[in-house]
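Sequence design from tokenized structure. All designs in this work follow the same two-part layout: the structure record, then the generated sequence. An example of the structure record is given first.
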């Protein structure tokens, strides 16, 4: 994707995003020292500063867009980042974001624990994804990780049962079915629950990869409650797939959490198994490339024992990641047909549309609150009609 780097606003955004990458690296090194050196000693006061030339107003916006306000507050309160030169309104808003995240996550985690406990009582397999897993393994503080929704992974065969449990906890169907998940909405909390029934559609051997993940499922302690999650190795691979599925255009917290696994959890990782799953999913090259540029952008050293990318490929990927990260909050990543248009070749486009229009019957059971798969089968023609109608509506709205 060609980008005009000479545009003044883009140059300012690029400066800010590079500084935010560096701030993520400082937080990661700060946390690494606390864990691996078994000390609470802080670095020299104000070892990181905000450069004079950096646009403070833009910094405030982009810290919000990238969900890094709590992280920046943590850097300041631990004296890793100097507050000198940062407007008071920003430091106060970052502190408020941290405190607000603590409160908001208390409600989200409470309903998640109810869902997890109910699934265990009913013998239903489940794995908690993304935010809560990162809080348990990486942040160790719920105020540092903002969560806009909850994500859980359950087999297609248990999807209808999981949907019934979710509805008993106050979630309602949204009639949104995607290629790998369905969405439910909790009106009181204003939060979306995504029930993932498959891995990303473009992933090689995705069913075998999913089987690997279920086989190696683990349990972690989150605020005194044990929840089922992916293994550390699978969390790393899933995080990579998540980044790629968003075309590398997503918040910096996702990049931070990806690199935090080999940095903070290195004693728990089986690298041989990581590369086994990567090879199975045909993601080794993408993994090596992303690790390479993130160690550069965050200033953190990670030795994964893998062959590095060529210099040209590394420079191209670095430029792409920086530019796309700088677009977050300024350019909408969701355009009707956008994912369809990214499919290479007629066969890929056909597979994409077939999966989009013909989801598992259990997914239709969840979104339409149907009691049986037979009723879901009757509903399928209506779903296909409604989906095509929605795509046409969005295209007209965008003038395409």
């Amino acid at each position: 994707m060609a980008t005009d780097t000479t545009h003044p606003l883009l140059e300012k955004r690029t400066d800010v995003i590079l500084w935010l990458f560096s701030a993520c690296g400082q937080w990661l090194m700060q946390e690494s020292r606390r864990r691996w050196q078994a000390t609470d000693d802080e670095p020299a006061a104000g070892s990181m500063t905000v450069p004079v030339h950096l646009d403070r107003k833009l910094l405030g916006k982009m810290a919000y867009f990238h969900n890094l306000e709590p992280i920046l507050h943590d850097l300041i309160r631990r004296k890793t980042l100097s507050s000198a030169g940062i407007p008071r309104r920003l430091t106060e808003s970052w502190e408020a974001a941290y405190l607000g995240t603590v409160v908001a996550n208390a409600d989200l985690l409470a309903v998640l624990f109810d869902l997890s406990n109910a699934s265990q009582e009913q013998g239903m397999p489940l794995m908690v994804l993304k935010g809560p897993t990162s809080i348990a393994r990486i942040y160790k503080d719920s105020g540092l990780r903002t969560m806009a929704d909850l994500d859980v992974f359950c087999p297609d065969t248990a999807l209808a049962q999981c949907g019934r449990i979710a509805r008993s906890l106050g979630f309602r169907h949204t009639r949104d079915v995607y290629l790998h998940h369905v969405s439910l909405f909790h009106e009181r909390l204003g939060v979306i629950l995504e029930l993932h029934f498959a891995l990303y559609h473009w992933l090689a051997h995705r069913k075998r990869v999913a089987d690997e993940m279920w086989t190696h499922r683990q349990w972690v302690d989150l605020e005194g409650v044990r929840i089922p999650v992916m293994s550390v190795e699978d969390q790393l691979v899933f995080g990579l797939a998540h980044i790629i599925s968003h075309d590398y255009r997503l918040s910096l917290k996702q990049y931070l959490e990806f690199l935090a696994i080999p940095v903070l959890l290195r004693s728990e990782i089986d690298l041989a198994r990581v590369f086994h799953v990567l090879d199975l999913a045909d993601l080794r090259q993408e993994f090596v490339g992303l690790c390479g540029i993130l160690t550069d952008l965050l200033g953190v050293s990670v030795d994964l024992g893998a062959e590095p990318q060529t210099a040209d490929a590394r420079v191209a990927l670095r430029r792409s990641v920086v530019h796309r990260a700088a677009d977050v909050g300024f350019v909408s990543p969701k355009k009707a047909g956008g994912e369809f248009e990214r499919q290479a070749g007629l066969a890929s486009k056909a597979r994409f549309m077939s999966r989009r229009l013909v989801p598992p019957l259990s997914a239709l059971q969840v979104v339409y609150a149907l009691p049986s798969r037979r009723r879901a089968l009757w509903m399928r023609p209506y779903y296909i009609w409604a989906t095509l109608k929605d795509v046409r509506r969005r295209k007209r709205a965008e003038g395409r």
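The first strand starts at residue 127 and ends at 128. We note this feature because it recurs in several other targets discussed in the main text.
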